[in-house]
Design brief:
664 residues; alpha/beta; 20 helices; 21 strands
């Protein structure tokens, strides 16, 4: 076995009967079970393992057990143990995972239909046929890269030079570089930092971790079968992206310490000229296309509070954590109580003499007991020894979150009062989340009104919770204040209540957990397109793009994680980036095959698309609620979120339509 994080080679089963059964018992959460029998059926070709009495309940897809009762769970373990023992003893042969035969003497069936059968069993209901191609890509059970470009520049445009610049070496930049390299397109990545990783390089605050399970928050073509945590902390994720950059061979194409400050399109030359600030001053580069992979959550948002500059002690944003500041025995004030604060505040409370949290808006929390847990040894064993199991487990997790709570975010047409809930499903979700709040704060009536959100669930980011936030707020040395901040003094932060009474919170250190300038896409970079138009002037603080990727008047300029490509309660942002980069490669292929020099999105196509997205967002909780949220631009329009299904975005980004573009 190599030292690579991406080494997913299946190891032979050498464990004893007792050890195999212990592994199955040790795979703690019942969520590992729905994928087990389909994985074994796929690996052995024995579809008789798909016992209907052991099928999960599709109506309970959100439940960890998928409706499987204890006796069913035990029976699945017994069946699996028997199969694994017989595999070990050579009594059951493994089949190639791309083999279309259904085994046990049955006539071979179409692979798509077989996958649909296996997938339907895993989720406990018949999967719609149009989802199967998408889920085949995500499953990638053979380990093949099913989203790799099926063309090469040398074959479709021999001798043509089409250099591409990528801005940013985070998750999307690494992905774009890998795809370009597969297609034989020359590229250079400009990265302002000294290493890859993007947000997972920059955010090093204590407790930083992903809020999507790592078996899903990873590239479909670079999966791991040995994730040590269900939700990995920042160092683990940074190692993953560093490993991907190394193994894909793209590090040599990155110019670290180089920040693109401006880019200008030439209608005459049909090229972009980039201005780049580097260690040796400003340089320029001319390229045929540019892919922005700068992300949305990378520019800290600092509030405007009177007296900020007068504070005498250390103060910093959570995304620019001062590891040189010792918080031991200090009086610390945290301004903000969003997702980042929820992660680092419990750690700060362990060090500080006293911690004050100044909260503007309380969060809705969804209980995730295993949020900080290491992956159970038994589950690790299954992923290492059962062919395809890690991929089937990923499929199960992906499906659970693929459309997730999206229906529970919708606005009912006949509902008049949208202040607390947007519809019956949203009201039901609210009730469930309120139960979780009551369980945690029933012994603290003083905190209950402060932590109880008075807005519909999903109006802003729902935070994953294992109980650590409530435990921290209930400490004797922690104060939660929800009154507005009026000013900052050299040694204190001052809040004022509705009656005008001020509270003075002494502070040795201030930590700002005030989020990012998410709606200010591409800032501070200047982008000048066709006819000398500045993109920021065109947007006027309200960013839009077709598919979140292209904008009229800016040919051959592509965005990843662009406007309206953020998801709220379903899926993973890596999924969106894979769809976007797939689309970008499709446009480049269209240009090379043309042959064309540029593709400029048509204005009517762009406007029609955005009108539909805007209408869709106004049918969701985050679109109609007045609660403050980074989902919205200064205009009040939702500039971040995608309001439709993951399937629709996948379908829309399969292949660009030449009719959507003006081609030159």
């Amino acid at each position: 076995m190599t030292d690579s994080l991406l080494d997913n080679q299946i190891q032979p089963i050498t464990a004893t009967d007792v050890e195999i059964r212990r592994a199955l018992d040790d795979a703690d959460l019942p969520s590992f079970l729905p994928a087990l029998l389909p994985a074994l059926a796929h690996a052995t070709g024995d579809d008789s393992l798909l016992d209907e009495t052991l099928r999960p309940d599709g109506t309970m897809i959100r439940d960890e057990s998928a409706g499987l009762q204890p006796d069913q769970q035990q029976r699945i373990r017994e069946v699996a143990a028997d199969v694994l023992i017989r595999i070990r003893d050579g009594e059951v042969a493994l089949v190639a995972l791309d083999d279309t035969a259904s085994g046990t003497g049955r006539q071979a069936v179409d692979d798509t239909e077989r996958l649909r059968t296996l997938m339907s069993f895993a989720i406990g209901e018949s999967i719609d046929a149009e989802y199967v191609p998408l889920m085949r890509e995500e499953l990638s059970v053979t380990g093949d890269d099913l989203r790799a470009p099926q063309w090469h520049a040398d074959e479709i445009a021999p001798g043509r030079q089409f250099p591409v610049a990528i801005i940013g070496a985070g998750m999307s930049g690494i992905l774009a570089a890998h795809r370009l390299q597969q297609a034989g397109i020359p590229f250079c990545i400009y990265e302002k930092n000294d290493d890859v990783g993007g947000t997972w390089l920059e955010n090093t605050y204590p407790g930083c971790r992903v809020d999507v399970t790592n078996h899903v928050y990873s590239y479909s073509f670079a999966q791991r079968n040995d994730w040590p945590y269900y939700f990995s902390p920042q160092p683990e994720l940074l190692d993953y992206f560093r490993t991907c950059a190394d193994e894909f061979g793209i590090r040599e194409h990155i110019r670290f310490g180089h920040e693109v400050t401006a880019m200008t399109w030439s209608d005459d030359d049909q090229v972009w000229t980039l201005e780049i600030d580097g260690p040796d001053g400003t340089v320029t580069d001319g390229v045929c296309a540019v892919i922005s992979a700068v992300g949305q959550l990378n520019r800290p948002n600092m509030p405007a509070i009177d007296g900020m500059d007068s504070f005498a002690g250390p103060s910093f944003h959570s995304a620019q954590w001062r590891h040189d500041v010792d918080l031991t025995g200090q009086r610390v004030v945290v301004i903000g109580a969003g997702a980042s604060a929820v992660q680092f505040v419990p750690h700060v409370a362990e060090q500080a003499e006293h911690l004050t949290v100044l909260q503007r808006t309380p969060n809705w929390f969804v209980p995730v007991p295993n949020y900080h847990h290491e992956v159970a040894d038994g589950l690790q064993w299954l992923c290492r020894h059962v062919p395809g199991y890690a991929q089937w487990y990923r499929f199960w997790l992906f499906w659970r979150s693929s459309e997730g709570l999206l229906p529970a975010c919708a606005v009912d047409d006949d509902r008049d009062d949208l202040s607390l809930a947007t519809g019956a499903a949203n009201q039901e979700l609210r009730g469930l989340l309120e139960q979780w709040l009551f369980l945690q704060y029933h012994d603290r009536p003083d905190l209950q009104p402060k932590v109880h959100p008075m807005y519909p669930p999903a109006s802003k980011r729902i935070v994953l919770d294992n109980g650590s936030w409530a435990t921290t707020l209930k400490r004797d040395d922690v104060t939660l204040d929800v009154d507005p901040i009026t000013r900052i003094e050299p040694d204190a932060v001052i809040t004022v209540d509705d009656a005008g009474v001020e509270t003075r919170h002494r502070a040795d250190v201030i930590i700002y957990a005030t989020g990012f300038q998410a709606s200010k896409f591409l800032t501070p970079m200047r982008v000048v397109g066709s006819g000398g138009r500045d993109l920021h002037d065109v947007w006027d603080g309200d960013a839009r793009a077709y598919l979140g990727v292209v904008h009229p008047g800016f040919p051959n300029f592509f965005l990843t994680y662009g406007p309206n490509t953020n998801i709220v309660v379903n899926g993973s942002i890596i999924y969106f980036s894979e769809c976007e980069v797939h689309y970008v490669l499709g446009v480049i292929e269209m240009l090379l095959r043309g042959p064309h020099s540029s593709a400029d999105c048509r204005l009517d196509v762009h406007d029609e698309y955005n009108a539909r997205v805007d209408a869709g967002n106004l049918k969701m909780a985050w679109g109609v609620s007045s609660v403050n949220s980074w989902y919205k631009a200064e205009s009040g329009r939702v500039a971040q979120n995608w309001p439709f299904s993951l399937l629709e975005f996948w379908q829309r980004t399969r292949r660009p339509d030449p009719n959507d573009y003006v081609l030159r």
